[in-house]
C-alpha cells in the first residue's frame, strides 16, 4: 500500500521522482505512435509519461527514441561460449534487458548443477542488469539414441518444476515422442501443466494432424519454422513464432513476409545461438531489429516482437512497455532503422552507455560442477577405420548455410580394411562419447565438407555434447581427440603445419576467458580450418556441432551410430543391394 501511494504521489507531482528522463521520444508499443515527453521513475517503476516532473536525478534523452528493454525469447547462453558474466557485459549495452534462457547444453553435460551454475553466475552481477528467466530443459538427453552426461526423466522434471527456480519447460525437441504419445514425454508436459509453466517448442516441418497433436501437449512457441507456409500454419493454430536471428540459422526472410497487421502480436524475436564474435561485431537483439526492418517489417512491429509480444507470451507482468506501472527497462536508440543503442536503463538505473557496461561483472564464477567434464577412453588411429563391404556407401551432406543434412549414396573405394578418402570429396565423421569414457565411437562419411590434410574437432555437439571429429587422416583424428581431452574440451585442429587447440574449460562448452579473447581465438582456429579447405558455406567448427543433432533432418551421427531422423531409427553406412 505504501509503495502504491508513493507511486501515485510521484505521478501527481506531489513528490519528487527518483529519475526523470527529459527530451525523450517514446515509442508506444500499444499504439505504434511516437510521443515526445518525459519518463518519470520511482523505485525502478515508471510512474508517469508527460512533462513537469521534479526528480532527484535527471537524464537528458537528447531527442533519442526510447524503447522498452529488449527481451530475447529463446537463447542458449552457453552457445555463445562465454561465461554468463561476459555474456551480460556484451549484450546489455546492445539494449538487452531480459532473456528466456534454456540451459539445455549445460544440463546435458552437468545435470541440474549446470542450470544452477548459470543462475548463480548471473545472480552475482551487481547491480543486476538483466532479467534471466531460466527454463528447465525438457530433453536430457534429446533422444534415447545417444549418450548424454545426465538424464532428466518425467519424475525428476516434476520435482524440478515444483521449484520456483525454473520459469518454464524448455524447448520440447522430441516432437516425435509427443506426436506418438510416449508416456515419458507426456509426463514432462503434464508436469509443466500442473505447475502452470509455459512450454517452448521445437517442431521443424511439423504440420497437419501432427501439428495438431503436438499442440495438444500445451506447447506455446516454435523457433524452427523456416518456410512461409509453415509459419502461417503454426500461427493459425495458435502458436507464437520465434523469429530467429542466430549465428548458425535465421528465419527473418521467411518471417518478414508473414507478419501482418492482424497477426503481428504472435511473433517474438530470439537468437537461440549467437556466437561471441557476432555479439561483438553485430550486436544482439538490436542486430535482429535492424535485419527485420531491412526485410520490410515496420519498426513498430519489429520492436513489438522484442518487447511486449515476448512479455505477453511468457506472462512477464510489468515488462515490455514504457507505461505507468511498468518496470523502467529502457533503451535509447538514435533511430528505429539503425537501432544504434546509446543508453540502457534497468529498473531505472543506467547500466550501459555508449556501448559500455556500467555494472560490475566481478570475479568469474567457476564451480567444480562445471569443470573437468571431458572423460574419454584412449583412442588410436585404428579406432577410426571404417571397413565397408560394397562399392557404394551412405553419406551425409550438409545443406549449404543450413543445419539440415541430406542422405546421399556415394561411390567408395577400399584399401586394407578401410575406406579410401584421399582423392575423393569425402571425409570421415566421428562422434566420440566423452561423459563416461565408454569407448563408444560412431563413424560415418560426409560429402563435400571440403577439409583435406588432417582433422578438426569440437566438444560442443548438440545436444549431448560428445566429441565431434572430422578428417581425412585417422592418426590426425585420434590426435584431435587427445587434444580435446587434455584441454578439458574445446576446439582442436591438426594439419600439416602442426596443431592448435582452444580450450573450453567450462563443461567443454564455454571459455572463462574475456569475450574479446574468446572471439579472437575462435576466429583464428576457424581461419586455419578454412585454409584446410572447409567450404565457406559452412561455419568450419560450429556446423560440426550440429551434425550429431538427432532431431534435425535428415541424417545425423551419434556416439551410438548413424541415425535416420525421418524414420527416427538407426541406419547403416552400408548400402543394401536393393537401394
Q: Unreliable stretches, pLDDT < 50, 5 or more residues?
A: none
| Average pLDDT for all residues | 96
Helicity level: 25-40%
CATH architectural designation of the largest domain: Alpha-Beta Barrel
The biggest sheet amounts to:
9 strands, mixed
What does this protein structure show overall?
This protein has 579 residues and is of the alpha/beta class. It folds into three domains: 2-63, Roll (Urease, subunit C, domain 1), CATH 2.30.40; 70-284, Alpha-Beta Barrel (TIM Barrel), CATH 3.20.20; 371-570, no CATH class. The protein is built from 16 helices and 30 strands. The strands form seven sheets. Strands 1, 2, 3, 4, 5, 14, 15, 16 and 17 form a nine-stranded mixed sheet that branches. It has a six-stranded antiparallel sheet with strand order 23-22-25-24-26-27, with helices on both faces. Strand 28 and strand 29 (561-564) form a beta hairpin. Helix 3 (104-110) crosses helix 4 (112-123) and helix 5 runs parallel beside helix 7 (183-194). The longest helix is centred in the last third of the chain and has 17 residues, at 515-531. The relative contact order is 0.13. The model has no long low-confidence stretch (mean pLDDT 96).
Descriptive labels:
nine-stranded mixed sheet; six-stranded antiparallel sheet; 3 domains; alpha/beta; 579 residues; single chain; Urease, subunit C, domain 1; elongated; TIM Barrel; 16 helices
